[in-house]
């Protein structure tokens, strides 16, 4: 099962400028023209399986810190963090459009 984030986890992540955009999604399933350019794909191992999440952040190091802290509790590990997804300027992206649609 993919990571389970509590409200406290999500608040801590957001305080560190990291937003878990979508869990357990493959990079090829992202619709890049609808996403901000600050989307990163985080690949990690947990419970003997590899998962990938789409995460918003400016710096990879911020993502690494949040995922490392979460995965070390669960005996998991980060495999890779890749950037270069999304076409929209982050300040022009309206996350509410996705939620309404």
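Sequence proposed for the structure above (101 residues):
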């Amino acid at each position: 099962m993919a990571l389970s984030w509590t409200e406290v986890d999500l608040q801590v992540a957001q305080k560190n400028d990291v937003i878990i955009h979508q869990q357990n999604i493959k990079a090829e399933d992202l619709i890049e023209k609808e996403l901000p350019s600050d989307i990163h794909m985080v690949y990690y191992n947990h419970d003997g399986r590899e998962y990938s999440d789409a995460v918003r952040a400016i710096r990879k190091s911020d993502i690494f810190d949040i995922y490392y802290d979460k995965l070390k509790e669960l005996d998991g590990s980060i495999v890779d963090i890749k950037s270069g997804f999304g076409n929209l300027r982050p300040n022009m992206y309206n996350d509410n459009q996705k939620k309404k649609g």
